[in-house]
Design brief:
Helix content: 25-40%
Strand order of the largest sheet: 2-1-5-6
Number of strands: 6
Order of helices and strands: EEEEHEEH
Structural class: alpha+beta
């Protein structure tokens, strides 16, 4: 499992399971209008945790429409039905 650590407005740590899709050797995550997304928008630091090792990371909003479509397609390919459920219900 891959997790992302951010800080809420009150300073509490938010530990969120994240799904990753790789397009052209670059990792991408998607997020809805969740608390952890708001943390990143507010400027919270991001730490990615994989195999219990922590890696400082930077989240950058993708603006390229073609790349966004490729990322969505990769998520559908990688996560299938689970990706569709998340798309319907969202989550944090």
């Amino acid at each position: 499992m891959i997790r992302g650590l951010t800080q809420d407005e009150d300073g509490d740590e938010r530990d969120t399971k994240i799904w990753v899709a790789v397009v052209s050797s670059e990792p991408y995550i998607r997020m809805a209008n969740t608390r952890w997304y708001k943390n990143l928008e507010r400027g919270s630091s991001l730490t990615v945790v994989m195999d219990e090792k922590q890696y400082p990371a930077t989240a950058v909003r993708v603006q390229d429409t073609k790349l966004i479509e490729q990322v969505h397609a990769k998520f559908r390919q990688t996560y299938g039905f689970q990706d569709r459920l998340v798309g319907i219900f969202g989550g944090d």
